[in-house]
Amino acid sequence: MSVLVVDDNRDSAESLALLLSMGGYSVRVAYDGREGLEAASELRPTVMLLDIGLPQLSGYEVARELGRRGDRPPLLIAMTAFCSETDKREAQRAGFHHHLAKPVDLAALQNLLKTVTPVGMPPAADGGSQRTGGSPLIAY
């Protein structure tokens, strides 16, 4: 499974990419919203771990643009310090499927990634998404 990590904190992005690579994932890193959007177009990743507060284009803008394109977007996971209920609603409106608070709980992320099917959508027995720590952001 391919994962695109987009975070302007280079140390954080590269550390997460290394851990995911060690877990068997094919990982690429981008450091701003524009670069992330370009990498998503080129790679067509299964999952995109996307910070919200990015230079060039915000994570919200990247998610919206991916949603406007004709293709099925990757599974979008916000990993951000923006964690208020308002922030979570904005992430949902922008097209994010999941919302994880920074620092990201690696066990929670690994559990979430284990549920992803090859087309990028997690299976859900209850008709909702498999979101760690609460109700689903989006029901499929």
TrEMBL record:
The keyword Acyltransferase does not apply. Residues 121-140 are annotated as: Disordered. The modification 4-aspartylphosphate is found at residue 51. GO terms for biological process: methylation; phosphorelay signal transduction system. It comes from the Bacteria. One of its GO terms (molecular function) is methyltransferase activity. Residues 2-117 form the Response regulatory domain. PANTHER family: RESPONSE REGULATORY DOMAIN-CONTAINING PROTEIN (PTHR44591:SF3), STRESS RESPONSE REGULATOR PROTEIN 1 (PTHR44591). This is Chemotaxis protein methyltransferase CheR. It comes from Caldimonas brevitalea.
